[in-house]
């Protein structure tokens, strides 16, 4: 969502065409908040909470307001890259949506996909409304612990909401995610690889290769330390690291010694968990292995976005 949240979308600029009229950026912050609610068809006890959870809504409102102010025939043609930028997703994810039929498109004589701006905006509104449920009904594990026995990032409350919005928690294993952990083990030469999600009470593994564990308490989670940073966190020997030497995953049956984890982020930038590799012997990753792990983390984030778009769970 970062690309879209950076500026209100200008249809003629995205399509390379237009009627020559400039669209001025209006002071979105001064718009009436109930207009955003009416626009998206969302009922929420607190508009402030809605805007906190979905900061791109004002820009969606601006884009749709422009669309409504133009004539019915003024519906620019967009490329796949234009649509991805407007939706706040990667080009590869936009291509998957097009292939699945979620976004109506057609092929040019040259074989390139094109779509109408109105179709992209309609999909954005639909996906936003699908994911925006009242926050007060959240599960206790998606609320911050008042006295955590583990380190927490500054955005813990928003991060936990983002974890819940993915709809991934406690879902069955899926080949798309299992392929990623298989490749991570292969690239790193590590026997164990995981895709983890962190709630306030546990770390749960969407995919786990080389271990029978499906979850651990949050205060055991190496990944809970990894999400505090922006890049790969490496622990070469947990037995000599003050943060982990007494951890049950180090002293117990799992006997974790080496750990490397790369944060996985939601479309709005919150760290959901990690893609990590683990070994029972001290070691390091070389630069090529680190780049491979980062690339796989990017792919995992795309898969999470696709999952959210297709099956995003409402708060229940």
Sum up the structure in keywords.
316 residues, alpha+beta, Beta-Lactamase, 2 domains, 6-stranded antiparallel beta sheet, 41% helix, disordered C terminus
In DSSP terms (H or I, runs of 4 or more residues), the helix count works out at: 13
| Main sheet summary | 6 strands, antiparallel
Series of secondary-structure elements, N-terminal to C-terminal: HHHHHEHHEEHHHEEEHEHEEH
DSSP strand content: 5-15%
The CATH class of the largest domain is identified as Alpha Beta
Output the CATH homologous superfamily of the largest domain: GAF domain
Computed over alpha carbons, the radius of gyration is: 22 Å
In spatial order, strands of the major sheet run: 6-5-4-9-8-7
Structural class: alpha+beta
Ends distance = 24 Å
CATH topology of the largest domain: Beta-Lactamase
Q: Which consecutive residue ranges, at least 5 long each, have pLDDT under 50? A: 1-54, 56-72, 132-137, 312-316
Mean pLDDT: 78
Question: Helical proportion?
Answer: 40-55%
Q: Give me the count of strands.
A: 9
Supply the CATH architecture of the largest domain.
2-Layer Sandwich
Shape descriptor reads elongated
Number of individual domains? 2
């Amino acid at each position: 969502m970062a690309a879209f949240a950076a500026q209100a979308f200008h249809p003629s600029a995205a399509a390379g065409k237009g009627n020559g009229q400039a669209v001025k950026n209006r002071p979105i912050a001064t718009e009436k908040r109930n207009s955003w609610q009416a626009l998206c068809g969302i009922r929420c006890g607190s508009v402030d909470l809605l805007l906190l959870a979905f900061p791109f809504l004002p820009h969606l409102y601006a884009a749709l307001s422009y669309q409504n102010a133009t004539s019915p025939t003024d519906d620019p043609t967009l490329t796949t890259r234009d649509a991805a930028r407007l939706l706040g997703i990667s080009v590869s994810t936009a291509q998957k949506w097009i292939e699945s039929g979620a976004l109506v498109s057609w092929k040019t004589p040259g074989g390139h996909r094109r779509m109408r701006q109105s179709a992209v905006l309609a999909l954005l509104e639909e996906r936003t409304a699908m994911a925006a449920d009242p926050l007060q009904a959240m599960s206790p594990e998606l609320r911050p612990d008042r006295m955590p026995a583990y380190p927490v990032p500054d955005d813990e409350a928003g991060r936990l909401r983002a974890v819940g919005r993915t709809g991934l928690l406690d879902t069955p294993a899926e080949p798309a995610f299992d392929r990623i952990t298989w490749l991570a083990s292969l690239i790193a030469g590590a026997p164990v690889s995981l895709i983890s999600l962190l709630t306030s009470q546990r770390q749960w593994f969407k995919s786990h290769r080389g271990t029978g564990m499906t979850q651990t308490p949050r205060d055991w989670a190496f990944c809970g330390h990894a999400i505090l940073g922006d890049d790969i966190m490496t622990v070469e020997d947990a037995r000599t690291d003050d943060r982990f030497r007494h951890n049950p995953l180090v002293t117990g049956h799992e006997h974790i010694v080496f750990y490397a984890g790369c944060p996985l982020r939601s479309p709005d930038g919150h760290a959901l968990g990690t893609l990590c590799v683990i070994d029972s012997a001290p070691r390091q990753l070389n630069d090529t292995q680190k780049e491979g792990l980062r690339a796989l983390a990017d792919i995992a984030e795309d898969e999470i976005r696709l999952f959210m778009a297709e099956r995003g769970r409402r708060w229940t």
